[in-house]
Design a protein that fits this description.
Layout lengths: L1 E6 L6 H12 L1 E5 H11 L2 H11 L6 H14 L5 E5 L5 H13 L6 E6 L2 H14 L7 H24 L3 E5 L4 H17 L3 E7 L5 H12 L2 E4 H11 L2 H12 L5 H13 L6 E5 L5 H13 L6 E6 L2 H11 L12 H24 L3 E5 L4 H19 L1
Helix pairs in contact: 1-8, 2-3, 6-7, 9-16, 10-11, 14-15
Length: 389
Amino acid sequence: MLNIALFGPPGAGKGTQSKMLIEKYNLAYISTGDILRQEIASGSDLGLQAKDIIKKGGLVSDEIIVQIIEERIKSNTQVNGFLFDGFPRTTVQAYILEGVLLKLNTRLHCMLSLDVPNDQLRERLLDRAKKENRADDTIDVINVRLKEYETKTAPVANFYQEKEIYHQVNGLGSIDDIFNRLSTVIDLTLEKSWLNLVLLGTPGSGKGTQGRKLAKAHNLAYISTGHLMRQEIKKGTPMGKSAQKYIEKGDIVPDEIAIKLIEKEIKEHPNSNGFIFKGFPRTIVQAYILDGLLRKLDMSVTTAINLDVTTLESIKRLTARSKTEDKRPYDTETEVIIHRLEQHENKSKMVSDYYQKQNKIETVNGVGTPDEVEKRLTEAVSKAFKKIR
């Protein structure tokens, strides 16, 4: 998902550039002024509240604005992200936006500020006032608006400068020149975006085989908690000894062990384009844990891909693997295989539901040759890339 805030004083050209940006990047346009007018015109509860406040000469509270923005975000599910125009205007609203996006498991990727000298802004606004017959836009009123912008919004710029996502863009020149400058900044931001995939599916669905292929093809770090734990067991580390008794029974290893292994693996791959997580999360608690781990790095899960394989097919595959050099300790006993499948059915469905509610899950048919399945997965990954790029 791509979320942008377009910043700039009155007359900077935000409206013109917004229309072009939302079309190029398939974004939903969120202008607090436009939304308020739409809510008032529709006669909604929030619109009526806002209308009453405006009639009395008051300013619409942040509480009402945040409800309207949150509702608008939730109602636009077919877009790649959002472009915010006119919000946030204050540091308080910047914190509000952080909270709203965090609640929706996303974040603001960049704040773009159109830089136009005040003398140019005055000329533009006076010219616009003539064309639109706006008698109230006198030079005195324009000066007040520009001064108010500088006073209130400077702290907002500092807020995003500290987060290193604030970009000042030259707002002079032709419309196309300015648009190209904005697009360049956005494209560079997208190149830095990480693709984080979660591979879901029953034991034996082919997550390991396909996960390694996808990681290699897209320069992603492949993180398999099962593989990492087997390495610890082979080395005879305390962590390995602790995990071994759970793995042999086909049980889920305690989260404390998985967290340490994942954090270590993430640190060892600073140059990858993201991560593929296989075998984690397997429970709803682990899904929350993964969100927390990624949030520390200012990242989130991009897409969860569920490899769809029948229970009978899984049993066949696991039984066949038990006769090869790649066999696992838990492949040789039918009771353990069935126990693992039951655990997946009882606990992992909640994980799928968790990502489904976030509109982040893709189901891929896992039956067929490895190449056939890989082709389907590649299409799903391409779709995931489009969400962030």
